[in-house]
């Protein structure tokens, strides 16, 4: 929706108005909020934005375009709720704070809610009640009590907030496998693709005939390999290093060859934005017929690729970057664990193919280590152990482990960074991955927290230098991972932008995302743009850039939503384990000292789980504590505990 609003701000031709937005445009025309001409454009006195509401009932309009927040008096909210996307009229007054009033609600903050069925006893009668799964508050739904009484207790529903109707029965709260459906429904994500999108995907077949692509560079004789998690089914990238030429080849799945602009697949991919990953499965951005088949750089299969050849000098500086369409044949599908064995010197049981790959992999690793070391002189580096959760046959947690970053991860990461940097150089305007310097307020708050932990702050104008000194002290104190999390928390969130403003954390002047078009719509969009630039197709380039400002905002939002779906799922799994372990004591660490304090559990099947503490006393940040689980709500996915003295 935000994408469409940005179009209205700039002006949109009547013929370009999407069918599903025509009713909104008709409303805006009736209210005289937009111009009634060939080009429909928002009038200057109307401001689109997001509503925020304080506890006292006052609202604030956070404009979509640049500008200060506007105060909305309670009587000017016109039924708008927190998070709603609205159009407000600026109220011009000579004195006082700038104000606005809501004229039109474009989109509710949450189009859907998830509710579950409970029963209350009133006057000896069983009364059905649907409660919001996030807030535990009752929801008003257009359904008869008679119909609800036929359903089992804890039945879970997806509810349309505009019509107050049940759109789907997701299952029963007592079934652990309903968790993924709940997490997806909360953010209106779906797993299934339309029949038209699947038919489109199947039409491309299962194999590549090289003779059909005479203009592509044939690299099928080179010993490319993929390096991914053991369970990966979609392989975006493959690498090869030519020792003689001192050139790194980064081959990326050529998804744009199959997903055409505005095709059925493209429309659905654009709405998803990103693949979502659960411990036991993925919800892909593209139909599996593409993502796990013809697009995926599968072992011993010819595949179309968009390739960067990055030539280095003897000091490992990039001296040449060439981008072209090619065909590769990955000779091996390696896991991170297998490559770590190779890099650690364990090459036993290697066959001839392994040996040929090792002949370039080991020299590449030596170079990447030096490139990485040089990069980190100006960029930030954090230890980021990830939680790896395994589920049993009943959908409950089987075990939770910490997945550490290893040499194989570093190898692939820096190869991908080189390709992403190279891609960013080709465009001046389009789609960049940007990260801005943290605000002074965030830095001050971080420094105060660090001082309370006994870390000395030698304030320097160069924040990166300060961070490196802080990390050095933290490492000596044995708390580097914890301090890294605090530093990351103080940073601004990376996002996508049509204008380049650099990537502060990486220390890059120009950066974008090129290497994961199977999983990220941003990369797919960039591929299309790069091809238009390389082939000098100005009309296609202009068409892609036509609404790029709106698209980058939408993709950034979809990225955050995908992350929230994954976090919500993990919280639900933890809540189920906590429910059957009420009264048990776990080791934990204080992560947030605000009220209520929040601790993270450090052991067993609850490793990584957040616990909201009932204790009213003040805790110290990173204080080690013993936590007794006192309650767990499977519906809201919140665990409550208390710290034992």
Q: Can you describe this structure?
A:
The chain is of the alpha+beta class and 645 residues long. The protein is built from 16 helices and 29 strands. The protein folds into five domains: 2-107, Beta Barrel (OB fold (Dihydrolipoamide Acetyltransferase, E2P)); 112-174, OB fold (Dihydrolipoamide Acetyltransferase, E2P); 219-426, no CATH class; 437-491; 580-644, Nucleic acid-binding proteins (OB fold (Dihydrolipoamide Acetyltransferase, E2P), Beta Barrel). Helices cover 31% and strands 27% of the residues. Helix 11 packs antiparallel against helix 13 (480-490) and helix 12 (463-477) runs antiparallel to helix 13 (480-490).
Give the overall shape: globular
How many strands appear in the DSSP assignment? 29
Number of domains: 5
Q: Regarding quaternary structure, how should these chains be classified?
A: single chain
Count helical runs: 16
Q: Which secondary-structure class do the elements indicate? A: alpha+beta
Helix content: 25-40%
Radius of gyration: 27 Å
Distance between the termini: 51 Å
How would you write the strand order of the largest sheet? 5-4-3-6-7
DSSP strand content: 25-35%
């Amino acid at each position: 929706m935000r994408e469409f609003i940005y179009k209205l701000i700039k002006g949109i031709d009547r013929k370009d108005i999407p069918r599903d937005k025509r009713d909104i445009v008709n409303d805006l025309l009736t209210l005289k909020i937009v111009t009634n001409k060939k080009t429909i454009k928002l009038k200057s006195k109307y401001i689109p934005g997001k509503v925020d509401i304080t506890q006292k009932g006052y609202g604030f309009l956070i404009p979509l375009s640049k500008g200060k927040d506007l105060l909305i008096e309670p009587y000017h909210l016109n039924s708008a709720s927190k998070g709603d996307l609205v159009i407000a009229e600026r109220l011009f007054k000579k004195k006082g704070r700038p104000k606005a009033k809501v004229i039109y609600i474009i989109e509710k903050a949450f189009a859907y809610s998830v509710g579950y069925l409970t029963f209350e006893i009133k006057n000896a009668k069983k009364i059905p009640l649907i409660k919001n799964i996030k807030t535990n508050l009752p929801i008003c739904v257009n359904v008869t009590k008679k119909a609800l009484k036929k359903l089992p207790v804890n039945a879970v529903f997806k509810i349309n907030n505009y019509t107050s109707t049940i759109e789907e029965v997701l299952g029963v709260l007592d079934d652990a496998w309903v968790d993924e459906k709940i997490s997806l429904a909360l953010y209106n994500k779906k797993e299934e693709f339309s029949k038209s999108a699947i038919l489109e995907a199947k039409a491309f077949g299962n194999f590549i005939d090289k003779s059909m692509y005479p203009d592509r560079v044939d690299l099928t004789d080179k010993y490319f390999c993929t390096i991914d998690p053991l369970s990966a089914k979609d392989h975006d990238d493959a690498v090869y290093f030519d020792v003689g030429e001192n050139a790194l080849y980064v081959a990326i799945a050529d998804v744009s060859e199959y997903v055409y602009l505005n095709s059925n697949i493209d429309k659905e991919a654009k709405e998803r934005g990103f693949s979502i990953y659960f411990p036991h499965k993925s919800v892909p951005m593209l139909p599996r017929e593409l993502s796990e088949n013809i697009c995926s750089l599968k072992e011993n299969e010819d595949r179309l690729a968009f390739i960067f050849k990055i030539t280095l000098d003897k000091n490992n500086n990039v001296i040449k970057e060439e981008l072209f369409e090619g065909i590769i044949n990955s000779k091996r599908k390696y896991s991170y664990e297998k490559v770590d064995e190779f890099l650690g010197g364990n090459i036993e049981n290697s066959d001839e193919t392994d040996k040929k790959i090792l002949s370039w992999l080991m020299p590449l690793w030596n170079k990447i280590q030096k490139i990485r070391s040089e990069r980190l002189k100006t960029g930030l580096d954090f230890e980021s152990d990830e939680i790896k959760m395994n589920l049993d046959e009943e959908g409950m947690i089987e075990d939770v482990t910490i997945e550490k970053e290893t040499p194989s991860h570093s190898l692939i990461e820096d190869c991908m960074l080189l390709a992403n940097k190279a891609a960013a150089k080709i465009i001046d305007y389009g789609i960049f991955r940007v990260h801005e310097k943290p605000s002074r307020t965030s830095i001050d708050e971080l420094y105060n927290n660090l001082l309370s932990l006994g870390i000395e702050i030698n304030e320097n104008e160069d924040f990166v230098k300060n961070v490196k000194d802080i990390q050095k002290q933290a490492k000596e104190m044995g708390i580097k991972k914890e301090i890294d999390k605090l530093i990351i928390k103080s940073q601004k969130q990376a996002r996508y932008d049509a204008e380049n403003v650099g990537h502060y954390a990486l220390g890059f002047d120009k950066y974008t995302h090129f290497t994961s078009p199977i999983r990220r719509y941003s990369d797919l969009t960039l591929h299309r743009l790069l091809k238009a630039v390389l082939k000098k197709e100005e009309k296609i380039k202009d068409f892609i850039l036509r609404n790029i400002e709106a698209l980058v905002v939408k993709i950034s939002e979809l990225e955050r939503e995908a992350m929230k779906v994954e976090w919500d799922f993990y919280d639900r799994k933890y809540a189920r384990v906590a429910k059957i372990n009420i009264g048990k004591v776990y080791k934990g660490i204080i992560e947030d000292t605000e009220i209520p304090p929040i601790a993270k559990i450090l052991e067993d099947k609850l490793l990584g789980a957040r616990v909201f503490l009932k204790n009213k006393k003040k805790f110290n940040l990173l204080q080690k504590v013993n936590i007794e689980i006192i309650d767990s709500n499977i519906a809201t996915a919140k665990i409550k505990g208390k710290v034992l003295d």
